[in-house]
């Protein structure tokens, strides 16, 4: 006779389903405050859905594969060094490799073009999880604007070294400036 303890397997399946549902609920909740939010199926190489004010719905629909979508994002980055680094760490292959190693949450800061053509700092977070229904590895990508925080931190770093009455940040590409 062979006995199998299905209790541990059942708990694991319930935990997986709860975690997946929590991730879906989190995505729905923060969608309005994100610069971009996308859901991709890494196992099947599919872009499932997404939203960004920087990409039209048509542009998003054209990217049927996760690999094609990620490559489109990489090619749109303003700096070659960041393009190479993100391609190395956030390609579909790299994401699957990280998932297999147990690294399910990845974050990076990089620069992109904003809608007005200026270059801004963003933080991109990727949460990977197994879909409890299909057993596929899915990734939830979130991008948020951290430009002001990065600029403020740079200014604080400079201000620590020198005494200033005021500081200004000038964006040459758009002729905008901010005085602090």
E-strand count: 7
Helix content: 40-55%
Sheet of most strands: 5 strands, antiparallel
Mean pLDDT: 84
Main sheet: strand order: 2-1-5-4-3
Following the backbone from N to C, one meets helices and strands in this order, namely: HEEHHHHEEEHEE
Overall, the morphology is elongated
Q: Based on helices, strands and strand pairing, what is the structural class?
A: alpha+beta
Q: Could you name the ranges where pLDDT drops below 50 across 5 or more consecutive residues?
A: 1-7
Radius of gyration: 20 Å
Percent of residues in beta strands:
25-35%
What is the helix tally?
6
Provide a concise account of the structure shown:
The chain is α+β, with helices and mostly antiparallel strands and 180 residues long. It has six helices and seven strands. Helices cover 42% and strands 28% of the residues.
């Amino acid at each position: 006779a062979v006995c199998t303890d299905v209790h541990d397997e059942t708990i694991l399946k319930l935990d997986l389903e709860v975690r997946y549902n929590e991730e879906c609920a989190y995505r729905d909740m923060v969608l309005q405050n994100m610069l971009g939010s996308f859901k991709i199926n890494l196992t099947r190489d599919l872009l499932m859905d997404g939203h960004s004010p920087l990409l039209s719905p048509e542009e998003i629909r054209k990217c049927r594969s996760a690999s094609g979508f990620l490559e489109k994002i990489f090619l749109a980055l303003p700096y070659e060094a960041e393009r190479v680094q993100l391609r190395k760490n956030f390609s579909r292959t790299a994401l699957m490799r990280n998932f297999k190693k147990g690294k399910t949450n990845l974050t990076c800061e990089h620069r992109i073009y904003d809608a007005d053509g200026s270059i801004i700092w963003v933080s991109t977070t990727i949460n990977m999880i197994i879909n409890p229904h299909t057993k596929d590895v899915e990734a939830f990508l979130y991008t948020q604007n951290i430009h002001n925080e990065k600029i403020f931190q740079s200014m604080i770093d400079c201000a620590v070294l020198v005494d200033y009455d005021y500081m200004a940040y000038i964006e040459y590409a758009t002729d905008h400036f901010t005085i602090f």
